[in-house]
Amino acid sequence: MSEQLLPGYIIRRGSTLERSLLLKFMHRTYEDLFPNEDFSHLEQTVKQYFSSDTPLWWVEEEEEQGAGSREQGEIPLHASFPMSNAHPPIACLWVGNAIDQVQGNRHAHIFILYVVPEHRRQGIGRALMRYVENWAIQRGDRQIGLQVFQSNKPALNLYNQLGYQTQSLWMIKFLSAEK
C-alpha cells in the first residue's frame, strides 16, 4: 500500500524481501560520502538489524495519468524488488529502535535516509523526516535519534532546520598496530 508523500512522489512500506535493494541504497549512501572505501561489511549490518521490527519505506515517482504500460516481456532494470509501479525507488528510509541511555525510553533511530542525487533539493528528505516523526509519535516515541557524519553538511543543515540538536558526540581515536 502506498500513499502520496509529496506531489509527484509516493511512499510505500518495504518488506524484508527487499534486503538486497536496501543494501544497494546503503552502499550508495556511504559511497557518496567516502568514494574510495570498501563497504562490503554493510551486508553484515543489514543481516543483523533488518527485520520486520525495523521498518523500511521507499519513495518512488508517481505514475503519470494515462502513462502506457511496458511492452509485454520487457523486464525493467529494477525488477529485483516488488514494484508498486513502473519506477525504481528514488529514496529510502530505514528505522530501528534505540534506548535512551539517560532516560531508559525506547525511541526510533534512523539507520538510513537516502535520496538519489537526481531527486535531491526537492523536499523529499524533509518530507521523509516529517513522515517518520509522525510515525514515531503514533507509536508513542518521545524522540528520534540519528547519526550524521560531520562532513555531510546538507544533512546537518536539514536536521538543524527541523529542530534536531546534538545530544552527544561520538569520538574515535585511530590506533596504530605498531608498538
Can you offer a commentary on this structure?
- With 179 residues, this protein is an alpha+beta fold.
- The chain contains four helices and six strands, in the order ββααβββαβα.
- It has helices at 19-33, 42-49, 124-138, 153-161, and strands at residues 2-6, 9-13, 56-61, 91-99, 106-115, 144-146.
- It has a six-stranded mixed β-sheet with strand order 1-2-3-4-5-6, with helices on both faces.
- It is globular and about 65 Å long.
- The termini are far apart.
- The model is unreliable at 66-85 (pLDDT under 50).
Brief summary of the model shown:
26% of the residues lie in helices and 21% in strands.
How much is the radius of gyration in Å?
18 Å
For the biggest β-sheet, the strand order reads: 1-2-3-4-5-6
For the termini, the CA-CA separation is 58 Å
- What does the main sheet amount to? 6 strands, mixed
Class per helix and strand makeup: alpha+beta
Number of helices: 4
Give helix and strand order, one letter per element, not per position: EEHHEEEHEH
- Uncertain segments: 66-85
- Given the C-alpha coordinates, what overall shape results? globular
Name the average pLDDT. Answer: 87
